[in-house]
Design a protein that fits this description.
Pfam families: Fer2_3 (PF13085), Fer4_17 (PF13534). Its cofactor is [4Fe-4S] cluster; [2Fe-2S] cluster; [3Fe-4S] cluster. Its EC number is 1.3.5.1. This is succinate dehydrogenase. It comes from Marinobacter zhanjiangensis. There is one protein chain. By secondary structure, the protein is an alpha+beta fold. It folds into two domains: 102 residues, Ubiquitin-like (UB roll); 129 residues, Fumarate Reductase Iron-sulfur Protein, Chain B, domain 2 (Orthogonal Bundle). The protein is built from nine helices and seven strands, in the order E-E-H-E-E-H-E-E-E-H-H-H-H-H-H-H. The strands form two sheets. The protein has a five-stranded mixed beta sheet with strand order 2-1-5-3-4, covered by helices on one side. The protein has a two-stranded antiparallel sheet with strand order 6-7. Strand 3 and strand 4 form a beta hairpin. Helix 3 packs parallel to helix 6. The chain binds FE2/S2 (inorganic) cluster (FES). The site of FE2/S2 (inorganic) cluster has 12 residues, from loops. FE2/S2 (inorganic) cluster binds next to loops.
């Protein structure tokens, strides 16, 4: 099988003046493996290659990468699905976030925005003797929302986030915001909406849709953002 050229983004801030690109060939048999397998293999050849990973099965969200121009999780992306005619696999860090080293980005602002939406249940009523119950119908409303693994593939693909990462919450945070707005056990809907009501937090979304196109879990942040906008606009009238 024809070998595959892997083009890696490299940057070690203590050694390199600027980022550079490294081409490495790997055996063609990697076609049926995952992108993360390629990185693990390359790390055995060059231990300085730096990337994040943990679960290797699409659960922890730590190996979000830009692979041949698309954000995805390295561990669940098959090499052959990404290879074009050029037989080239280009692996870069997630865009729109400062690079710490090689494929590792600084996600401080991403998690700051996540914190802003108060990603926990708020309920002021007296604590019940057992758990807070929810009907199956209300529970079903959280499907498609709770599965987000915070990999940042959506947010880092969003031009509105690139320009305003301090002020725009971004698709991942807003998907989670909607998850709590939808939760029948949460009693802070009005307060949550009030915190989102400004020109940037939600309304900076321009409906571009990269978030939904790139979510490795098949979620739809753009739809959730649309629903929050509708709730906010209803509040205003
Ligand atoms: Fe955990 Fe890929 S290593 S999601």
């Amino acid at each position: 099988m024809e070998p595959i050229t892997v083009r890696l983004f490299r940057y070690h801030p203590e050694q390199d003046d600027k980022p550079w690109s490294q081409d490495v060939e790997v055996d063609g048999s990697f076609r049926c493996r995952m992108v993360l397998d390629v990185l693990e293999h390359l790390k055995t050849l060059d231990t300085t290659l730096t990337f994040r990973r943990s679960c290797r099965e699409g659960v922890c969200g730590s190996d979000g990468l830009n692979i041949n121009g698309r954000n995805n999780l390295g561990c669940i992306t098959r090499v052959e699905d990404m290879l074009g005619k050029k037989n080239l696999l280009e692996i870069r860090p997630l865009p729109g976030m400062p690079v710490i080293r090689d494929l590792v980005v600084d996600q401080t602002l991403f998690f700051e925005q996540y914190k802003r939406i108060q990603p926990w249940l708020i309920n002021d009523s007296p604590r019940p003797a057992t758990e807070r119950l929810q009907s199956p119908e209300d529970r079903a409303k959280l499907d498609g929302l709770y599965e987000c693994i915070l990999c940042a593939c959506c947010t880092s693909a969003c031009p509105s986030w690139w320009w305003n990462p301090e002020k725009y919450i971004g698709p991942s945070g807003l998907l989670q915001a909607y998850r709590f707005l939808q939760d029948s056990r949460d009693t802070a809907t009005a307060e949550r909406l009030e915190k989102l009501e400004d020109p940037f937090s939600v309304f900076r979304c321009r409906g571009i849709g990269n978030c939904t196109a790139y979510c490795p879990k098949g979620l739809n942040p753009m739809k959730a953002i649309g629903r929050i906008k509708a709730m906010l606009l209803r509040e205003e009238t």
